[in-house]
Amino acid sequence: xxxxxxxxxxxxxxxxxNLTAPQPGRPPQTTTAVSGGSTGADQPAAxxxxxxxxxxxxxxxxxIAAREIPGVHDMGGGLSRSFGAVRERVPGGRPxxxxxxxxxVGERQTAIDLDLVVEYxxxxxxxxxxxxxxxxxxxxxxxxxxxxxxxxxxxDVHLPEDEESASTTEARVE
Length: 174
Hints:
By secondary structure, the protein is of the alpha+beta class. It contains five helices and four strands. The termini are far apart.
């Protein structure tokens, strides 16, 4: 009696591609390792080396995506908004797109926390849902990381009379 064994040359290749065997009732899944890669002249050029994404990249992408949504007036808590206003008034100062954004970045996934100030009169739940969808879409598209959660805290509501009182205060100072 003789037994035959199948060659296992492709086993390492399948493991490196992170392919999982299809399970009954579930579609096959493929995962992309953002930081993965291998070395050697026998590897395709796109697979040679590693890619790592700094936290600040995710912070900036999430901050810009959140500010794009109508109804978001500002981001951050009261103290960080005050420091941000001072920073923007200094010559050469620029807005901090990362204000109000905290992230935790892993090799393949990220979690994001946002602090928002919304405009008076908009639905807070609708704005939060739109922000969440836009942030997830932008971060996944730009970085390739899977966004596992976007937690949103609404810290304040911007009232129209807040701008009127601010402009009156500025008019008194020369």
